[in-house]
Amino acid sequence: MAAPVRERAWTLCSSNAAVFRSLFNRTFAELGRNPYTATLTCRAPCIFPHSDRGRILCHSAALTGPAPRLQTAAAGQRTGLRTAAVSDENEPPRLKASDLAEKIRKESKKQSTEAKAETQTPKPPVLRRVDELRRFSQQLQRVHPNVLAKSLLQGKLLETAELVAINKPYGVPVHGGPGVKNNIAEVLPVLAKMVGGMRVGPLHLCHRLDKETTGVMLLGKSEEAANRVHQLFKTHQVEKKYWVLSIGVPVPSEGVIDIPIIEKEVEGPQPHYKMTLSPVYRIAEGGEKVSRVRANRQAHCAVTRYRVLASSGACSLVELQPITGVKHQIRVHMAYGLGCQILGDHKYANWSKLAPQKLPDGVLKKLGLEQSKVRYLPIHLHARQLVLPRVEGHPEVTVNCPLPKFFCNSLRRLEIPLPQK
Fold first, then answer.
1. DSSP type of residue 342
2. Is 385 helix (H, G, I), strand (E, B) or coil?
3. Do 242 and 344 sit in the same domain of this protein?
4. Active-site residue among 88, 210, 345, 361?
5. Which pLDDT score is estimated for 70?
């Protein structure tokens, strides 16, 4: 009876080894890998451990090659095998949490060191104020709309039953566009709730100002009120007064500029569009005769009153009253009509190219600036006053806006006194 028992035990061990080998090969075939260097041990109970056949069939089968890593736990459970997870040589090393924390700590320390070095480097007062203004403008573009609305609320100048007058800050556009994150038009619903409560409707724009212009801006509490004020602007019934800080003193000190304005393309290495003058009178070559020429059909009629309020050296404070409302009318009339550029107006500082404004050495010295830093100088153009006429039972409305801080600092540095009234 011993021989049959030995044969059955040998057959059992042999069949178990074959089953495990087939499961092993099938498991790695499912994973898309070849069965290399894994250790497969027959776990069938061998009745005769001292038998040569039992030792041959039950010993561990060593296979050569890189050991694959099981990708799922389910595959390992189906086969009932244990495999050693060996990392691939081509796989990049994993970043530990401690290494990542150390990397972030070093970057933070480097940034704080650079910021501290910038603060310790002595700068002229004007440069510091220019940097502060530039950072403030960038912050207004990154802040939440509610923060911008609150800033506009703090600059409220006047509120009536139909209108709200605000002090528009520098660098904030009125309307949205490419690359514009925050603008006044988008925060009007939030501003309306801050002004009149949660149940009021949104405010409406009555007119617009350029992104770099500061000063009075009117908002209507209803669409009807906004349309009424807009019609007054369109028919040139609103009295507008702007204050500018100019390079040079206009001659004569008071007058009217009546020169049409047209938009033209500037050709060259940097092609762009600019507004320029389109005069209807030309002086002959000898300079003795003035002749009238045909007006350009695309030109717009532009009339501006001006008067010099104060001056000192090569700079002056000028009040301008635009009768018409052409794009960039004040800037073009000052730069090309009077030959006195507005301080910080880099667009109209050069006709043929886009470059920072070139300032005289005396102005640079008084401002404490270097010519290489003039590009950061903001334009000194401020909407000082708006006067709405009395029409159809609506009372006359006059709104005055104080000068921004950077404007006052420039006046003080240039030793230009503010007028008493």
1. B
2. strand
3. yes
4. 210
5. 41
